[in-house]
């Protein structure tokens, strides 16, 4: 049987009254405790996933953002659809964290990486029309993952490179279009 009460030294070390996973997730919304809570949840890894997934529905956008950032490192197949849904969160910071987690391959293996069928539509929509330039820039990274396999990705990135009101988004979109540094670096080898 698992002991659900954290040892006293863990509670004192973190400075929290409660250190169960759910309490730590709620602390992601407290500026004084967010860093310690984030680190401890990351340390707990897979054991904290159900509480992190539940935190995606928290009313506090800082909690939702922190949960997206945690899923960047801890995502599994069961969490992927929920993370994709966070791309439509009303808070721009949450959308940015969700798009980063979906685009970033450094922190996770290919075991749970969804394909364009799940990812490309929300990324194309946000690249074209999200009111926040940072969200559009993160969407460009996600769309950029599909430039060598889906013509819609090249078309959307080319349009953003030419017309986006943000110079940062135009620049990032250009990296993923033909002739761009990332596009050229990630091109599949010629047969």
Q: Could you explain how this protein is built, in words?
A:
63% of the residues lie in helices and 0% in strands. It has 191 residues and is mostly helical. The chain folds into two domains: 1-114, Leucine-rich Repeat Variant (Alpha Horseshoe); 116-191, no CATH class.
Task: Draw up the topology in text.
Elements lengths: L7 H7 L6 H7 L6 H11 L4 H7 L5 H14 L2 H9 L6 H12 L12 H14 L3 H12 L6 H13 L3 H9 L5 H5 L6
Give the rounded overall mean pLDDT: 89
Query: How many E strands?
Result: 0
Question: How widely separated are the two ends?
Answer: 56 Å
Structural class: mainly alpha
- Cα gyration radius (Å): 19 Å
Kindly identify the CATH topology of the largest domain. Answer: Leucine-rich Repeat Variant
Major β-sheet, in short?
A: none
β-sheet strand percentage: under 5%
> What is the CATH architecture assignment of the largest domain?
Alpha Horseshoe
Please identify the top-level CATH class of the largest domain.
Mainly Alpha
Shape: elongated
Low-confidence stretches: 1-12
The CATH fourth-level homologous superfamily of the largest domain: Leucine-rich Repeat Variant
> Helical region count?
12
Number of domains: 2
**Helix and strand succession?**
HHHHHHHHHHHH
Helix content: 55-70%
Q: What would the keywords be for this entry?
A:
191 residues, mainly alpha, Leucine-rich Repeat Variant, 2 domains, 63% helix, disordered N terminus
What's a quick, concise take on this entry?
The protein is mainly alpha-helical. It has two domains: 1-114, Alpha Horseshoe (Leucine-rich Repeat Variant), CATH 1.25.10.10; 116-191, no CATH class.
């Amino acid at each position: 049987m698992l002991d659900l009460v954290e040892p006293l030294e863990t509670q004192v070390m973190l400075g929290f009254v409660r250190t169960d996973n759910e309490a730590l997730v709620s602390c992601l919304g407290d500026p004084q405790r967010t860093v310690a809570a984030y680190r401890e949840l990351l340390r707990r890894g897979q054991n904290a996933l159900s509480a992190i997934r539940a935190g995606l529905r928290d009313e506090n956008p800082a909690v939702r953002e922190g949960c997206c950032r945690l899923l960047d490192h801890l995502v599994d197949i069961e969490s992927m659809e929920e993370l994709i849904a966070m791309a439509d969160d009303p808070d721009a910071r949450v959308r940015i964290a969700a798009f980063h987690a979906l685009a970033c391959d450094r922190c996770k293996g290919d075991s749970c990486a969804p394909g364009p069928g799940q990812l490309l539509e929300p990324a194309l929509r946000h690249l074209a029309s999200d009111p926040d330039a940072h969200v559009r820039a993160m969407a460009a990274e996600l769309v950029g993952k599909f430039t060598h396999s889906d013509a819609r990705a090249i078309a959307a990135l080319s349009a953003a490179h030419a017309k986006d009101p943000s110079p940062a988004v135009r620049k990032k979109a250009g990296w993923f279009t033909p002739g761009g540094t990332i596009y050229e670096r990630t091109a599949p080898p010629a047969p």
